[in-house]
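DATA SHEET
Item: assembly model
Revision: 1
Owner: S.N.
Input lines:
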Amino acid sequence: MLPEYYYLTLSAILFSMGAMGVLIRRNAIIIFMSVELMLNAANLAFVSFARMHATINGQIFVFFVMAVAAAEVAVGLALIVAIFETKQSIDIDQMNSMKG
Amino acid sequence: MIMDWALLTEWTIKSLVLIFGLIGGFAYLTLFERKVLARFQVRIGPNRAGPHGILQPIADAIKLIFKEELIPAKADKIIFIVAPIITVIPALIILAVVPFGPDIRLFGRTITLYISDLNVAVLYIMSVTSISVYGIVLAGWSSNNKYATLGGIRSTAQMISYELALGLGFVGPILLSGSLSLVGIVDAQKNVWFFLYQPVGAFIFWVANLAEVNRAPFDMPEAEQELTAGYHTEYSGMKFALFFMAEYIKMIAVSAIAVTLFFGGYRGPLVDQFPVLGPLYFLIKVVAFLYLMVWVRATLPRIRYDRLMAFGWKLLFPISLGNVLLTAVGIGLVGITGNNLWLWFIPVSTILFFLLVSHFAQGAVAGGNK
Amino acid sequence: MSIDIILFLGLAVVAILSAAGMLFSRNAIYSALFLIINFSAIAVYYLILGAPFIALTQITVYAGAIMVLFIFVIMLLGAEQTGRTPASWWMRPLGMGLGALLILESLYLIFTHLHSFPQPIEIIDGFGNPGQVGEILFDKYVLPFEIISLLLLVAMIGAIVLTKKKMKR
């Protein structure tokens, strides 16, 4: 195995790119996808730590993160579809009122 | 990671044999299907190109290669061209983990007749099946044609709905053999083939496979009379040939997987003494399954799309869940009592469960027709 | 250069470039496809790190189910084309500057704490097998497992409730 800081560096870079995506983009779906990228970067860190310590607990956590991400995507996309029905747009700059 | 050159050449040769075998098999499967369909419909199939139509696939290939390739004006060019490729590749790689026969000795080496023995082979098959939906939905969307997009989305929704029943159908043989590797599953069928222990599981698996490959009676999203041929409306020439190839290769692949999981793979009489009989038995079983698929296509009418989805979610999925539960109970009973005969509890209870559910669920599938 | 480093760097280039493609692509479908490539690269990393079950689950769940859901929603909403410029001119540079700052901070933290990481332990042959994952999942982590199944049920119900049309009386 390569020294673990290789994988942690990659995980940090991907996480920061995901965070950058959440800040820069205005399309709600792309923001959602950046959040998924951040979750994946965290998963990569978990798996590399599991390998480093030779215990399987890290992989179990990744399993749970994946299940939670799936649930979050289902509900989040349903929310986006529901918002689109009323506002006819998924540009987050236009979602600036709680009414409707 | 030092590569053993003999191993590398062995893998390369096996992969090339598999790919070319699949492509040749696809070509003659089209002829086989047309001839068998013709016989079902009391007519003779293609018999002009060569004796008994043997050269018909070659004639089809030449025609498709020379056809003009159209790309619609506002279609998304990159995705339009890449979509057939994305559809074909999962079909070709899914058979990498299936054992075609027992180990044979050639040139002083023991050659295993599978490309790789993954210890998570069943999960690999599930993931390749999950990926294979992309080509279809991207093809439909990139055609810039409402009918194609609708056909693509319907087809994809059908495939992901039946993936559930498919995944649960895998669980039966996994529980019975205790291993996720297909080589292990075939080895565990030494005495009794799994379809005897799991008749309902085999049936569910096979029906879900028919829906996964978009094959009759589940081919509403792509039939010519419906939705103007669905997701491959705008495709012509070699790209259409790639879609066609993907569908037929998937047919061969799912038949091979069903044979491996439920019908003993390459097992048969005298396979241990003459290992070369293994691939022959495998071929015979796969051809029998393909004949069954063509027979079903010739016999059953197409199922309407909403009834198709209702069937997958309301009938097939609960039955497969019940199948998993009863299989686990059966294996638990074997573990408690230590008597292997308790395994026969599984087919009895699952068939009763299946009859019970299908009796009570008839109203659910009939849907809005009442 | 050993083959480990070449493999790692190749996959790292694929992962980072596809993440960048996802971030800066004008067409939402292209972003989704780049993200699928990224997930596949990470799945190969899981295989290298001795987690075969998690790798194939990643492809099945993330690349095979979650991204299909994304692509459906993008197609149904017709949301391929996004706006050209952000509302304020300083948003984009600020976002990228903050992201770069985050990268530099994380790298600084990693490389100053290098000495405190223990040596990697050799793993046994069946590490990351579904059998081993299953043993721990149903033994030590059975409560989170049951809670996750409840969570998925609630998510299903939530998704259906949110998109159901109001019944006309």
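QC remark: Chain A has three helices and no strands.
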